[in-house]
Specification:
This is G6PDH family F420-dependent oxidoreductase. Keywords: Oxidoreductase. There is one protein chain. With 317 residues, this protein is of the alpha/beta class. Helices cover 44% and strands 17% of the residues. The strands form 2 sheets. It has an 8-stranded parallel beta barrel, surrounded by 7 helices. It has a two-stranded antiparallel sheet with strand order 5-6. Helix 1 (14-27) packs parallel to helix 13.
Length: 317
């Protein structure tokens, strides 16, 4: 079992993200996972630094901390040839500590290039082609590819690591699990769904299984809920909403009727370690072996102390 920390680029300015990564390593986390967005979910979050620049700085500043994109969309805003090159470089400069998490993306970040937002079936087909292109380029040499949606012409990634990074594919149903097993090395999910794990393991016996656990640590429930209402209420809408809305203003409107009780259902809220451990156990019991703690509480440093003193001893015994 490995325990990771979620670096939320939407909620903090770039230098603070780097500082938090160093604190995560100091607190004993095995890896950090970082979102890869162009926009925040809500304007009240206020930030959206460039993930790949941040990972370069973090790789150079840490020793043993794993690095995971959670997740990158390699189909629109980025062409997969760029991601193949970026991930290979990250694997080299991090001495093999990098994992490429990929998914089919959100309208929030991908519409900015002015190409519209494809329907779900097309997005999944595009992700398949993107993974095929990445795998092709990682074979070395000059490569070309002609797909229905994506093309590659005489491209070569010159700097490839001795060991290629693992690819974890975000999954929510049977088609995406099958894609993860076929063209990925692992699975990424935000729900403690044992069926996803079982389906993946039925097709692939090994590979990392990443599960993202929603927490909100604070000295009181009220303090945690105040921050959640201000900055994280978008998260209760579900994936069909999260993937389709184009801008923070739309998420603001869509989450206007969210109640504190809704947030209590979606997050482990407050100072009680048993609540946080129970939320984590849902994922470990479902079979996930790389647990990502996404703390949305008001004080990251207080959470690092809480993890090191209270959660970690319980999770590593």
């Amino acid at each position: 079992m490995q325990i990771g920390y979620k670096l939320a680029t939407e909620g903090f300015e770039p230098k603070e993200i780097i500082r938090q990564a160093l604190k995560a390593e100091e607190a004993g986390f095995d890896f950090v996972e970082m979102s890869d967005h162009y926009h925040p979910w809500l304007d009240t979050q206020g930030h959206s630094g460039f993930t790949w620049s941040l990972f370069g700085a973090i790789a150079a500043s840490t020793q043993n901390l794993g690095l995971v994109t959670g997740v990158t969309c390699p189909t629109m805003r980025y062409h997969p040839a760029i991601i193949a090159q970026a991930a290979a470089t990250m694997a080299i400069i991090s001495d093999g500590r990098f994992t490429l998490g990929v998914g089919s993306g959100e309208n929030l970040n991908e519409h900015i290039i002015g190409q519209g937002w494809p329907v779900v079936s097309r997005r999944h087909a595009m992700l398949r082609e993107a993974l095929e292109i990445i795998r092709l380029l990682w074979q070395g040499g000059y490569q070309s590819y002609t797909g229905t949606y994506l093309q590659l012409e005489d491209a070569r990634v010159f700097d490839l690591p001795d060991e290629l990074p693992a690819i974890a594919v975000a999954a929510s149903g049977a088609p995406s699990v099958a894609l993860a097993a076929e063209l990925g090395d692992g699975l990424f999910a935000v729900e403690p769904d044992a069926e996803l794990v079982q389906s993946f393991r039925g097709e692939k016996s090994s590979g990392p299984l990443y599960g993202e656990v929603a927490l909100a640590y604070a000295e009181t429930e009220e303090a945690a809920l105040e921050v959640l209402m201000e900055k994280e209420r978008w998260a209760v809408g579900g994936w069909k909403v999260m993937s389709e809305l184009p801008n923070p203003v739309n998420f603001d409107a869509a989450s206007a009727t969210v109640r504190e009780d809704d947030l209590r259902e979606a997050f482990a809220v407050g100072p009680d370690p048993e609540k946080h451990l129970a939320a984590i156990a849902e994922f470990s019991d479902a079979g996930f072996d790389h647990l990502v703690l996404h703390n949305s509480g008001p004080d990251p440093d207080a959470f690092f102390d809480f993890y090191a003193s209270t959660l970690r001893p319980r999770l590593t015994t």
